[in-house]
């Protein structure tokens, strides 16, 4: 145990003192925050539609659509109406779009006797989905208003009728209804899962790489002359794991500082609860993070010991973390069906446990026995993974130059 | 009391036999050379001595007791290639190695400083390993092997990559340690070093010991059948019946005697015909013995 702790200290300090550690600890939250802020900003900007023209043979319809377009958030700076429009007007509009004085024009052709016009939106880009859906809404709303008005309804009654209904969510927990915010707990789960995934993958691969480094530089031969391979491996996992926890801890600290700050309060954030993260979830995050980390790192270490170069690790790394991806891919299914047989089964299958069980936990607290069983199963799986990895470690590390075949690895397990 | 005793150890990997029935003993206060061509099984036998691998059969005794891992704190092992953390500071690395061998951090640090001073690499102590030359790294590795004052020192090719000045510095250090009563094993294929330093040897070929004993024993098994003469004057003594073959250079000749021939007869005959400055009955060099033994085995 003494040597395991010495090795752990070394691995920990080497990582924590590196520039890369400092950079990722500080930069990653900034980049993530930047991406979030960026997408919120982009969404609020409404797709960049600034100068619009509405052309129609029906002046009433054009005016109604214009009124509707200008109603929403972030309306275009100018909306020009051309009505009744002729083919010559269309040529002129095309020229203006080409000359960039217009972003696009909406052509509404209401055939006599029809109630729905033919609508074409022409712009320089064909993929401006956001503007198109916005115009689509505006045209339908305008038509509805026109139709309702034609049937004798007063303008304020129409407004009332067309008001959006906001569906709030609630969660049934232990027989009682509690208010919850679906989008918040989804975002909370999402952030935590991404963190878990990133850290487990990043540090697991880190372990594999450091095993290869020891193998190629033959440090391992010196170390093996002082301690058992199991202690060396344990030390490595403890050290690298502690470095990972330090990083996650720093991120949580940043998040806590942010969520407790005045800026956050203005954005309606007050403490972790604002992200839909409960203390129970936080506790289990730590537990599943550690379990997941040890499991995947032991697998990665055994794998690192059986190959001879970093490139090979990169080629195969996908297969190692594939079970974690299963959880990510099935995220929305698990969040909405936390107690289905599939969700329960996956959450008790050790390679999937950290992510799937955590997702279930975010959606609805699973029965205690399932939580306990998942932890027991994971600890057993970790023990097996470390035992196998230590075997491969000891023998594989002394073989150079070629990758081991599966039968060879099975034979190594029997070597003492 | 032998410090290391291997008794008929064998080890196979898959179908390949790495070591077969190897026995050897190393006493305290002696230097032992483990020789053999590349791939003969030198490193395999060393690994079994320190428990990196275990023999399939046979026993390993360290310090007069069956091998157990707690004895490893009394062993210093220098592997053939450098085994150092590249990005780690040299002093931290030495302290870690000392601690892994059971020293306290402060003791390890003090000893590391003393050794760095002795091997003239004090400047390197605060650098990262990857910034050092190959020779410097070898010295660091050398120190990390000796920091915990081991009773058994095992060195696999310790002088590779060193210039002559540094090689002789390390040789002197090893001789000093031998005087202090340490048992030193070193494995090499550099015969000249073995000849200068070792008290006993074991020559391994294809996993088997083909020659073993003290240097004197080994050499006495081979006849002194080579004569070196420096002379001036008549050279027809080279046709003497005792001469099997010869090579002649300016003023000197290297003669190989016939089996059982008397060198004194040749000296008399030569002295009658020429002025002799030097007449030496040369014992075979270890290199010749090595090539002869291994070569015979290859032929067989």
UniProtKB/TrEMBL annotation, chain A:
Cellular-component GO terms for this entry: membrane
Record's keyword terms, sorted: Membrane, Transmembrane, Transmembrane helix
Transmembrane helix found in the keyword field: yes
Domain ABC-2 type transporter transmembrane: 19-390
Pfam family for this entry, one: ABC2_membrane_3
GO molecular function terms listed in the Swiss-Prot or TrEMBL record: ABC-type transporter activity
Membrane topology (UniProt): Multi-pass membrane protein
Compartments, record wording: Membrane
Residues spanning the membrane: 20-42, 187-208, 237-260, 280-304, 316-335, 371-393
Entry keyword Membrane: yes
InterPro entries named in the record: ABC2_TM
PANTHER family on file: ABC TRANSPORTER PERMEASE, ABC TRANSPORTER PERMEASE PROTEIN NATB
Identification of the protein by name: ABC-2 type transport system permease protein
Organism: Acidipila rosea
From TrEMBL, chain B:
Segments forming domain ABC transporter: 4-231
Domain of life: Bacteria
Entry annotated with the keyword Transport: yes
InterPro entries per the UniProt record, alphabetical: AAA+_ATPase, ABC_transporter-like_ATP-bd, ABC_transporter-like_CS, ABC_transporter_ATP-binding, DrrA1/2-like_C, P-loop_NTPase
Gene Ontology MF term list: ATP binding; ATP hydrolysis activity
Entry annotated with the keyword Methyltransferase: no
UniProt keyword annotations, A-Z: ATP-binding, Nucleotide-binding, Transport
Protein's name in the database: ABC-2 type transport system ATP-binding protein
Organism, scientific name: Acidipila rosea
Organism placement in taxonomy: Bacteria, Pseudomonadati, Acidobacteriota, Terriglobia, Terriglobales
């Amino acid at each position: 145990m003494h040597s395991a702790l010495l090795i752990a200290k070394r691995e920990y300090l080497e990582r924590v003192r590196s520039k890369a550690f400092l950079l990722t600890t500080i930069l990653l939250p900034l980049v993530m925050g930047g991406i979030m802020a960026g997408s919120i900003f982009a969404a609020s900007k409404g797709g960049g539609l600034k100068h619009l023209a509405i052309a129609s043979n029906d002046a009433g319809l054009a005016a109604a659509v214009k009124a509707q377009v200008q109603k929403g958030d972030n309306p275009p700076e100018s909306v020009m109406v051309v009505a009744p429009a002729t083919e010559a007007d269309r040529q002129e509009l095309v020229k203006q779009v080409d000359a960039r004085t217009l972003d696009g024009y909406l052509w509404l052709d209401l055939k006599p006797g029809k109630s729905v016009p033919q609508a074409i939106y022409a712009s320089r880009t064909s993929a401006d989905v956001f503007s198109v859906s916005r115009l689509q809404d505006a045209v339908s709303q305008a038509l509805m208003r026109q139709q309702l008005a034609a049937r004798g309804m007063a303008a304020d009654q129409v407004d009332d009728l067309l008001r959006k209904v906001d569906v709030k969510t609630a969660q049934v927990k232990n027989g009682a209804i509690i208010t919850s915010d679906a989008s918040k707990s989804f975002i909370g789960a999402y952030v935590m899962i991404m963190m878990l995934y990133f850290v487990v993958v990043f540090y697991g691969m880190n372990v594999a790489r450091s095993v290869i480094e020891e193998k190629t530089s033959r440090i391992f031969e010196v170390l093996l002359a002082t301690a058992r391979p199991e202690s060396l491996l344990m030390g490595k996992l403890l050290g690298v794991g502690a470095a990972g926890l330090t990083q996650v801890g720093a991120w949580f600290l940043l998040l806590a500082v942010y969520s407790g700050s005045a800026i956050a309060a203005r954005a309606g954030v007050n403490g972790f609860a604002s992200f839909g993260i409960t203390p129970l979830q936080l506790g289990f995050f730590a537990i599943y993070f550690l379990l997941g980390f040890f499991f995947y790192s032991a697998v990665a270490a055994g794998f690192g010991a059986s190959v001879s170069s970093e490139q090979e690790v990169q080629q195969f790394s996908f297969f190692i973390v594939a079970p974690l991806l299963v959880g990510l891919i099935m995220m929305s299914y698990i969040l909405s069906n936390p107690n289905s047989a599939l969700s329960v089964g996956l959450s008790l299958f050790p390679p999937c446990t950290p992510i799937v069980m955590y997702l279930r936990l975010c959606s609805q607290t699973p029965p205690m026995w399932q939580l306990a069983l998942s932890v027991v199963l994971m600890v057993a799986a970790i023990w097996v993974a470390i035992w196998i990895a230590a075997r491969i470690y000891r023998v594989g590390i002394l073989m150079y130059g070629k990758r081991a075949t599966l039968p060879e690895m099975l034979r190594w397990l029997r070597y003492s | 009391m032998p410090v290391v005793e291997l008794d008929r150890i064998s080890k196979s990997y898959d179908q390949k036999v790495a070591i077969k029935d190897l026995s050897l003993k190393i006493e305290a206060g002696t230097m032992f050379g483990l020789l053999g061509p590349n791939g003969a099984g030198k490193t395999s036998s060393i690994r079994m001595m320190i428990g990196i691998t275990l023999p399939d059969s046979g026993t390993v005794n360290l310090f007069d007791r069956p091998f157990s891992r707690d004895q490893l704190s009394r062993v210093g092992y220098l592997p053939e290639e450098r085994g150092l953390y590249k990005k780690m500071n040299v002093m931290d690395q030495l302290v870690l190695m000392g601690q892994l061998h059971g020293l306290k951090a402060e003791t390890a640090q003090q000893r590391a400083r003393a050794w760095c001073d002795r091997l003239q690499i004090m400047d390197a102590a605060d650098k990262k390993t990857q910034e050092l030359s190959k020779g410097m790294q070898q010295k660091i590795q050398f120190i990390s092997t000796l920091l915990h004052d081991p009773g058994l020192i095992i060195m696999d090719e310790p002088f590779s990559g060193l210039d002559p000045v540094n090689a002789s510095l390390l040789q002197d250090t090893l001789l000093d340690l031998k005087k202090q009563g340490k048992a030193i094993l070193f494995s090499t294929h550099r015969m000249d070093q073995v000849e200068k330093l070792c008290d006993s040897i074991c020559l391994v070929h294809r996993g088997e010991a083909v020659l073993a004993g003290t240097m004197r024993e080994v050499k006495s098994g081979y006849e002194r059948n080579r004569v070196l003469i420096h002379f001036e004057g008549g050279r027809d003594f080279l046709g003497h019946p005792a001469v099997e073959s010869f090579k002649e250079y300016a003023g000197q000749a290297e003669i190989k005697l016939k089996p059982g021939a008397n060198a004194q007869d040749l000296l008399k005959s030569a002295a009658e015909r020429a002025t002799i400055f030097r007449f030496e009955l040369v014992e075979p060099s270890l290199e010749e013995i090595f090539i002869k033994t291994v070569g015979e085995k290859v032929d067989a």
